[in-house]
Amino acid sequence: MKICFIPIDNRPVCYNLAIDIASIDDDIDLMIPPREYLGSLTKIADIDKILNWLEDVPMCDAIILSLDTIAYGGLIPSRRGKESLEEIKERICKLKDILKVKNAKIYAFSSIMRIPNNNYNEEEKEYWSEYGKNIFEYSYNLDKFGKADSSKIPDEILNDYLKARKRNFEINKIYLEWQKEGFFDTLIFSKDDCAEFGLNVKEARELEKSGGFTKTGADEIPLTLMARSIEKDIKVYVQYTEPDCTDLISNYEDVSIEKSVLGQLELGGFKRVNDINESNIVLIVNNFREKQGEIVMGWGVNVKNKNDYSFNSIIQEKPFAVADVRNANGADNDFAEKLLNTFKNKNIYPFLGYAGWNTSANTIGSLLAGVKVAYNAEKYNEQAFKRLQMIRFLDDWAYQANVREQIDEPCDIKAMMKPYIERLSEVFNYKIDYSTVTFTHPWNRKFEIEVDL
Hints:
Elements: E1 2-6, H1 16-22, E2 29-31, H2 47-56, E3 62-66, H3 67-71, H4 77-80, H5 85-100, E4 105-112, H6 128-145, H7 155-180, E5 186-191, H8 199-209, E6 214-216, H9 221-229, E7 235-240, H10 257-267, E8 271-272, E9 281-286, E10 293-294, E11 320-324, E12 327-328, H11 333-346, E13 351-355, H12 360-376, H13 382-399, H14 414-427, E14 438-440, E15 450-452
Parallel strand pairs: 1-2, 1-3, 3-4, 4-5, 5-6, 7-8, 7-9, 9-11, 10-12, 11-13
Antiparallel strand pairs: 14-15
Helix pairs in contact: 2-5, 6-8, 9-12, 10-12, 13-14
């Protein structure tokens, strides 16, 4: 199968992860633009080079397309950029002309501009450091109550913010018209880092009323669309570690954890079944009680948030995968230890994958992409699968839930990661030359690392 894949930016979870997942099946030919063409935290993508690259791409079966990359230069520039509506329309019309002649199924997504509830401006406009929470409250109240106090926000700042929102919303409405023409096989509007109410949620409702399909999440959606492009049926039984708490809402999301799981299954082209005996695989979801823990943002992890889940009920009965969403932004240490110890003691294969990074949607969607490829692989590459699991555990568990808390800023973490490398190499029987392993902070911040094996 030939897949053309245009990521949202150059982060490892957006770029490398797609390559790592596709490599599990040697029958998949993944065509992806050079990484240097894509945007970063501070750099806008080279849109002309990406369009030229896309024009030269050979005929393929599916095109997975992050529309924000072409429209704005990436996800972060979609919030920061100052281009006019007309400039962006010109770019996307050129994109449409290129895609028309490709004769491929097009799976695309565009973000609904987020409204984070904090005063961090690392990924927002400069004024977010002072007015971010005020803008969030204004947006939340305006949607929930139909009115809001804007006195805490200078007029010029609020007007600038609302102008950017309106521009992006108009672009999304253009995509929706393309969808009605039958241009896209699948079009998703993503709700990134959202709350129950807000202007972004209001826009999502309006798009839905006009026939649009919205989904909570963002970074994982191209990967879920990759899963969708592999049109093979998989019946999934979902097993929660906290079955009485599936109605709780994750941090940064506006739907329950159960709806988040079901939404990702639907988008990825899976079928959920209620009888484990009818399933092809089991998706184990390590969900939370009361409130999802949060490792990165300093909210603390609820140490009482433990469970007595045992893997014994699933061992050697069904192929299974594990979505660890107990915490946002990192693994549940107790659960990860239990899983790894069970591997070591019982060798519980067939195992289809683990993920525990960022939001619940990020974890579930990216995990399911790997599951779809591994389960349906025409030419299964076991070493590539093991490599992917090594990277996920080193990132989501070793770094995010442990080593990250030991550093104050990006630095050389290889020595701190060594015990985890040794343990995981033994668990997965994955031989590795320690001297060649590198860990870097590609965006020069603690939030993400790049694991190179």
